[in-house]
Design goal:
The structure is a homodimer. By secondary structure, chain A is α/β, with parallel strands linked by helices. Chain A has three domains: 239 residues, Glucose-6-phosphate isomerase like protein, domain 1 (Rossmann fold); 190 residues, 3-Layer(aba) Sandwich (Rossmann fold), CATH 3.40.50; 76 residues. In chain A, 45% of the residues lie in helices and 14% in strands. The first copy, chain A, has 18 helices and 15 strands. Chain A has a six-stranded mixed beta sheet, with helices on both faces. In chain A, strand 6, helix 7 and strand 7 form a beta-alpha-beta unit. The longest helix of chain A has 23 residues. Chain A is globular. The termini of chain A are far apart. The interface between A and B is large, with 149 and 149 residues.
Chain lengths: 531, 531
């Protein structure tokens, strides 16, 4: 870390007015290779400019890609988009203000004190990141999340809400762009049942964020929910945090959504600049490309040294992996691209796996996220002249050095403060870096064709489950094993039938019993339903 | 997934009395290769038996490795160990009972209602996993954790404790085996300050879990803390969950520590069996070995389909990566071993990165963790005859299939229930699988030589910070840039000095100001301290 290009600042990309720096000095990159990236980055910037001007940047799905307009509505290529963004933001802030002021009350005339967000993937990863980063005991509404179709998990969240101020004082926000995501729909149905069990009308506590005309939109309007906020097909789920998806929960919690938007908008300005030396997102994309040989050969280990940014790496998992993990490039060649992302926070994670990072497999690069501002409260020395924050800094620097000694690359992103502005900056920085990288490796960052297969297979599985359940005899003495059920159904996958039978018999929810046998394949089952 | 070896159960390792199954059918392993593993696994079992009998299984550190004795104290090779384990468990349960009954009260005579755990790494990852998995609104004490030296993060936890029942009713457990871990010590000092600020005597609210004679042990005994519980050098941090480290927080929270211990003990019995067909831990280790070519070439993506197991993958990150991420093998050859571990939970993570898993880089295997028991409460149908749990199962099965279609391997671990017993089973299963795998690749799983370098570098950094701070002139007109400070100090790493200066000036805690210049290297700083 002491060659000339390091100490002359060649590898430092700094924007002081923004309060953002990207330090590539410990990436062990070749300066010549970085120069060679220049024309490729120029093409990435051109592609990005076209996208921002309304090109069909998602060719498979024939969609515009408009998340950058969310924080600069005037840039939208269609006046109607500008107006829709501005109107939605106004409505979000207005609704939150009314909830806070008591102009919007529960059906029984109480103040809302909790907000429950139901969603999954892009509809919760951003809201969870922001809620965790910026929330605290002073929040106007306390936030909770349901992000799965695990009934036990839902029961736990509902139990906590009830143990708090109760569902009566809880506003529920259901977020689903398509309105057809089953996990979210199930969460909604389960929660509506819980309200009903408490003698409460769900509709009077419910708000939707969804696409116009979606299934959820119809339910919300038909049942008279409090409000419906829009989603648009030109904003993808994983880049929707700065639409109503993220802004509504944040505003309800009492967080500064204007500062988040400003942080993102200012970062957009900085990341439109030509040349990686002036453009922190281009610098990141080029570094990812070079360190992973254009093929993601190194995993991205993301370590924010700030507890409140702990969920940022999880947010990035989706943004990076769903955007870049692609089978085909734009020319149709099979490429199997992607970059694996993991991490929680430093220095905590040092105690979990720095051992492997330093001594083990050399298949990653670390992204240190440094926040300059230490704490809001008064200074406290844990040693003479040394604070806890100095230790946090020391552990980050020490790890940087310990990794560099072993030739393990790392880069450092520095922001001034982990406030609403900083949280918005990180979102915008990585959105654009991912977009640039996609151009560098010639893929579509804005579709996700691979997620449908699992959903389709799940639907088939549920259909199979119904057939399996119906095929079971009520007579114990005629109990069937998996092979018997499969034969009866003409189903070739005995093992899948066996797994379904085990689920039905041991889940505790179906009238299916195992009557004899041991193990997945030898067990015999019958129905316990009234015949 | 329909060849003969699959449907004849060849790849299924089931133990029904235990309620545990490992399904390797979707790993696409070669049956002949699996047979070839037999003699290597036999050696791993022999090595493990020696370890359990008290061999020096951690040769570098000349230590016995005794975590299996924690749940079967009679197996310890030394009578004093047996007695120490039994006595510690009795004391943990007795102390928790007294806190619950009110026989132990706060200095002001109140009941304790919250427990704050301060630790990091092995001292919190297990407790956090268990607390999250088994806790809920009915806990006897509500649990909170401080697991870092981030003062802002500490302030947030303290603010939440104050907003709850207050520090007055909060018991603090400080966990550090060596007693010298700086993050934990800083957390303790910060929290002690918070108690003092609230007019409370910290010692009357504090309990330690630490090694005999450690720095923490001396502080706790010297200051008259409520209790000190033991840690022993024959239990490593990452395998300490079933010592007082994990059992004390769990018992205080009101969780069933006996069931956790029984789950682990029964799993130990099952994982001592010869032959992988009878031994789920051996089956896992062999599968890891074959799928990663004996070198961790595939990352382990861990997806429990159960919200309450969400932190298990994080717990595993340490257990697997710190144990297996090693530079040298036992013969001194350089091997750079390791297996990267990441994941949160299903089906949530499907919406984050199944796109990459199915279409992108082919460099991982998924571990599905299935829990048969769906929910404790009453059944609720989200579609006719279909529950949320059926969807959860369907998404897991669907993803298994969607990955298999693309040749992406996965294995499934099934447990009956995610209760205290199941939580203990998973710990024991993976502890032993990691131990077996270490023998398969001929490494020491029980040391962590790579973590010292970062700590040493951090100490050097803090010393440098003090010198940098002292080197700054108080006179603004004589302000120095990083190169100037480095020259004055004879410090070769200008960039490091520059980063220290930025931290000092912008952290908000030190009397250092930037007076002119822009950017890391050109900024000039002076001191603001009274001269």
């Amino acid at each position: 870390m002491s060659d000339e290009r390091v100490t002359d600042g060649f590898w430092l990309v700094e924007d002081e007015s923004l309060g953002l720096a990207v330090d590539l000095t410990a990436m062990a990159l070749d300066p010549d290779a970085m120069e060679v990236m220049a024309p490729r980055l120029a093409r990435a910037l051109t592609a990005m400019a076209a996208l921002e001007n309304g090109a069909i940047a998602n060719p498979d799905e024939k969609r515009m890609v408009g998340h950058y307009w969310l924080r600069a509505p005037g840039l939208a290529p269609v006046q109607a988009f500008t107006e829709a963004i501005e109107a939605a933001l106004d409505r979000v802030k207005d609704f939150a203000a009314k909830v806070h002021s008591g102009a919007v009350l529960t059906p029984s005339g109480k103040r809302f004190e909790q907000v429950l967000v139901i969603g999954i993937g892009g509809s919760t990863l951003g809201p969870q990141y922001v809620s965790h980063a910026l929330g605290g005991p002073g929040d106007k509404l306390r936030a909770a999340f349901i992000d799965n179709t695990d009934p036990d998990g839902i029961d736990r969240v509902v139990a906590r809400l009830r143990a708090g101020v109760g569902l009566d004082a809880t506003l529920t926000v259901v977020i689903s762009k398509s309105g057809g995501t089953k996990e979210t729909r199930n969460g909604m149905l389960e929660v509506a049942r819980a309200y009903a069990a408490d003698g409460l009308a769900f509709a009077g506590h419910a708000v939707a964020v969804t696409g116009d005309g979606s299934e959820l939109d119809r339910v919300a309007r038909g049942d008279g929910w409090l409000e419906v906020f829009p989603m648009w097909d030109w904003v993808g789920g994983r880049t929707s945090e700065l639409s109503a998806v993220g802004l509504l929960p944040a505003a309800l919690q009492g967080l500064d959504v204007d500062a988040m938007l400003a942080g993102a908008r200012d970062t957009d300005v900085a990341t439109r600049r030509e040349g990686w030396r002036q453009n922190p997102a281009a610098a990141l994309a080029a570094a990812w490309f070079l360190t992973g040989d254009g093929h993601g050969d190194r995993a991205m280990v993301v370590l924010p040294y700030k507890d409140r940014l702990e969920l940022f790496s999880r947010y990035l998992q989706q943004l990076v992996m769903e955007s870049l993990g692609k089978d085909k490039d734009l020319d149709g060649a099979t490429v199997h691209q992607g970059i694996a992302v993991f991490g929680n926070k430093g220095s905590t994670d040092q105690h979990a796996y720095v051992q492997q990072l330093r001594d083990g497999r050399d298949d990653f690069f670390v992204t240190f996220i440094e926040v300059l501002r230490s704490r809001v409260g008064e200074r406290f020395d844990v040693d003479p002249g040394v604070t806890s924050a100095d230790y946090l800094f020391g552990f980050m620097e020490g790890t940087r050095r310990a990794l560099a000694e072993r030739g393990r690359p790392s880069l450092t992103v520095t922001i001034a403060e982990a406030d609403a502005r900083g949280v918005g900056m990180l979102i915008a920085l990585y959105e654009r870096a991912v977009g640039f990288y996609a151009t560098l490796v010639n893929i579509n960052a804005y579709h996700q064709p691979g997620v449908e297969a699992g959903k389709r297979a799940a639907t088939e599985l549920l259909a199979l489950q119904a057939r399996v359940e119906a095929a079971l005899p009520a007579d114990e003495s005629a109990a069937l094993d998996a092979a018997g059920v499969a034969a009866k159904l003409g189903e070739p996958e005995v093992l899948t039938v066996a797994r379904v039978l085990r689920h039905l018999a041991h889940g505790g929810e179906h009238a299916v019993a195992r009557v004899t046998g041991t193990g997945l394949l030898a067990s015999r089952y019958c129905s316990r339903r009234a015949s």
